[in-house]
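S.,

Sequence below, as promised.
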Amino acid sequence: RNEQQTQVGGNEAEERNCENRSFSQTANHQMFSGLPSLLTRRKRKDLELMEEAAKELLSYFSHRNVDALLKVTRNTLETMRKRIHSSSLLYFMENDHSNKQKQSSHPIFRTNITLSIPIIIMIPALDEVQQALNKTVEYIVSVSRGVGQWSKERIPQRKISERKILTARRGSRESDWEDVVPEAAIRSVLDSSISDVSASINLLIPVQPKNYYKWVSENKEIIKLGSVLSTTINSTKKDVLTALEQFACYHHIWRREREEAIRDFMKGSPLLSEFESQILYYRHLESKINSEPEYICVGALALYTADLKMALTSENKAWMTGFGLHCNKKYCTEMENIFTFIEEVSKRLNRPIKDLDDIRIAMAALKEIREQQIPIDFQVGPIEESYAMLNKHELPVAKEEIEKVDTLRYVWEKLLVRASEIQNKLVALQPNFRGELISNVKIFIEDCNEFYEDYEKEGPMAIGLAPQDASDRLIISQNQFDNLYRKYITYTGGEELFGLSVTEYPRLLEIKKQLTLLQKLYGLYNNVINTVSGYYDILWSEINIEKINNELMEFQIRCRKLPRALKEWQAFLDLRQTIEDFNECCPLLEHMSNKAMMPRHWKRIAETTGHSFDVESEMFKLRNIMEASILKYKEEIEDICISAVKEKDIEQKLKQVIAEWDCKTFTFASFKTRGELLLRGDSTSEIIASMEDSLMVLGSLMSNRYNTPFKAQIQKWVHNLSNTTDIIENWMTVQNLWIYLEAVFVGGDIAKQLPKEAKRFSNIDKSWVKIMTRARETPNVVHCCVGDETMGQLLPHLLEQLEICQKSLTGYLEKKRLLFPRFFFVSDPALLEILGQASDSHTIQAHLLNVFDNIKTVRFHDRVYDRILAVSSREGEIIELDKPVMAEGNVEVWLNALLLESQKSLHLVIHSASMSIQDTGFQLTEFLNYYPAQVGLLGIQMIWTRDSEEALTNAKYDRKIMQQTNQSFLELLNILIGMTTKDLSAMERVKYETLITIHVHQRDIFDDLCRQHVKSRTDFEWLKQCRFYFNEDSDRMLINITDVGFVYQNEFLGCTDRLVITPLTDRCYITLAQALGMNMGGAPAGPAGTGKTETTKDMGRCLGKYVVVFNCSDQMDFRGLGRIFKGLAQSGSWGCFDEFNRIDLPVLSVAAQQIAIVLTCKKERKKNFIFTDGDSVEMNPEFGIFLTMNPGYAGRQELPENLKINFRSVAMMVPDRQIIIRVKLASCGFIDNITLARKFFTLYKLCEEQLSKQVHYDFGLRNILSVLRTLGAAKRANPNDTESTIVMRVLRDMNLSKLIDED
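The prediction came back faster than expected:
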């Protein structure tokens, strides 16, 4: 600080000199202002030099200031570091030298250590000490904030004088402070004596706006010192833990469970010496704790132990107190026992001696004293010592106990003296009492003999006594015997006391045994007789048979336990009979007391027993029932009681059924805007289910033999519920038909065409509204249905009328279907919707996909409402119609026109495309972008067919032409693959992927032809392929497969995916083509997932056909199938019947006949045929019927022979996945698709074969296709990555996560 002041003072002096020089220069300048301009310029130059010098000087002193601040800060931090380091060094040296603390160590920080169970902790913690040190370092560095930088502004003279005065005052104030602060305090700071870390440091440092803090805080050495100091305390953590470890020897004081340890100690019945050794152990431990040093030095820390010692002492004290309390408790109990003994014996000794009894009591007391004298003598000493020991160790003891223990020895010795006195007194009294005893014994023998005679004659054992009399006599005899027995005890005891021979009384002891037995028997006898008599007076309404049963059972058990000798006595026999008689009645009484017993049942019991029972009377008791001989009619009464219980059960169930149907109501639903005209289907189904349950219950009640009182009621409810069920089922049938026909006949176009049926339905509709209005007014289910005859009569009539309407409607729909055959493939509701809205041609948009392969919408003329100009697919591809179609008149007529016009328009586009292909300036990309996907695909196929045939024709003359053509096909393929890597719309992507799928196959075929050296157009390897030609002469698109030719049907297919063609697909195409060529059907058969249906559909797409797929089930009937066959034959469509062998065998038999008629007509090339239902159907020879079968499953039939004969079967096996992978990779834009497909296929094959079998594993086609879809997206997202990297990454990401650890 002094150094800093010196620097500041020096700087001020330099500043003043500078100001003086500048002032004198200004004065000179004014004096010579009149000199020539040369002098002026020179002066200006000198002034500039002067200013530069001044700046240099200011900069120099500014650097001096920085250096001074850096030096003072560095010195302070270094001093602190050395001080802390020296403490730590000293600590280590001492530790190395000896474990004893040295007073010469100089710690800086004071902390406390204390016990925080279960560990010893340091307060404040090591981190807090480190934070305090860090804060100190921060304050030291922050001092430079208060030192302002010198500015370039000139300070006026007035300010300089003010500053001088201020500095003088501050100097005087500091000197005053130095006088006030004691020298010792300063020395303690200079000596770096211990500071309490818990004292917070709050220093207010004045901050100058421009200061030197930045230079100081960013100085490398200061940063380094700050860094060293920021870890110096925390680095002692290990040493602090080691220091605290020296208190480990006290762990047991707080870690052991005190109460449990003392309890275990007490189990060993410890002696006083053991108690004292425990207390002394803890006393010694307390001394050891107190002798621990005041503080422990660990480097710069002083760990003060006062709090820890206090906590340890407190815990230690608790142990001592615990042992003291248990010691006190033990010896206090012993002392109390001695005092109790002394008190009791003293009472007996102090009793006056008047007779033999008194002598006997005194003698017994003396005997007890003799027996207890030695044990008590041994106890008194330890008891006194225990209290002395507790007192010595200042352990808590009750004041009254200390007073008591002081009198213990005196009271005991006093008792012994009194015993000696009584002993002497008894010796003196003995002769008198002895003579008296001998005379009394003689009189007692005479009294006994009299009692014996009287007992024989008048006692309870006299022969022929009734049990009740014997019981009375027993009481008298017992009283006499008790008097004699008391004397017997006294006299025999006296004889023993005086050493006389003891007189024997064998007869008296025998009578004692007899009386004991008699007491047991007659006590039980009286108890039973009184209890049973009490039962008779119990009110019948309050009877508790269970309680009576329990009491009788207890009597029986006591009866069995009586000695065998008593079981011959009359009293015992009577007793047993009474219990058994009442026991026999108990089950019967229990039945009769059942709540199910009604007056009708009591009347039947009265008729059976011939005894009337007034059960309704309040005073009706058990006695009234027991008077009737109920045991005599036991079985009859039991039957009546059981029937009462059964009837009660029947009644409850019947009441439950009645209550359920009394509150069960219909719930209604709104129909369109016409109000609540429907029964809610879900709640009505629940009502029918509940009704069936109730009928089951009533049925079981009807068959119950105890149902007589309720039979009529049960029959009534069975009738009601059965009729209600029938009516509700009829009602729901009528409702469903009404809803179906309401949509047709109310406000639709069909009503106009069927006026008679519309009128009939109008009447039905009115009746239905009446029925529903009545139902809403009477919503209770049973009451509504069978309350009167209305529903029972009206519903069957309505059903009959509705069926007539439906039949007429079905005939109407059939006519429409014959006019537009594709309606055969539309369900009745959908067809009704189409026909019902026929007046508005725009409503057809929603149904177009039901009758066309891929026409989703049509475009109408903006002004002419019904004029159709173009058709559009799901994907948005549009074909402009060659001639507009007017959607007027009957819907089936203009739909036919639309179909023909769409086919014609597509044909014209194909014709245009075939012409484009022939152009010399043909550009593939432009061609594909211009034409729809379907036509573009045909274009590629026509190019391939043309170029291939040309090469094959010229192969004999030109050796290279096959290779050149093959290369041109490869280039064409690469152009297509290249297109997929561009940013395409979803439709364009599908388009190019489909083109690649087909062209990969075409290129592979030609590659095989090259390798097999085929050089002729007539070679079967070429003929078996699908070959596409546009015949200009006939203006037809032709497709040849082997020797079978097909005319392209021009169905608009839009932009859809095509199947990857594998050798299996080729074989299937050839077989199906041959079948069609022979006017037969095709029947692909094979396991699931082999592509039976998809191959058939794909072949249809290849030929431009409309293919309809039907999922067959055992629910199909011959009428439905016949309708489909008619539709196919008439429309020229292909029908693919999926899983045909699931249809029931009888239906298959009829279907075989129907198919035979259709195919025979095709073979004979007739224009029409008569179908099995008698209809005359026009024939379109382009139709085809295909069955797919999945053999070897449950529920699959073997096809009848007459059906098999009309079909060519194709065995479909597992497709070649490698080809599929390769084609899909190519369509995703992968050039190196062959190698990648091989790797992909091999990996999945190995996974399938070698990994464990898990439910969630799937390495089949479904998983392969999802990976391939992801690959396309990954390829486009990472165009710069190599193809193998992309494939490897996607395969890893999509499979690794689902593998289990083992795999």
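Confidence is low (pLDDT under 50) at residues 1-35, 96-104, 176-195, 197-201.

Coffee later?
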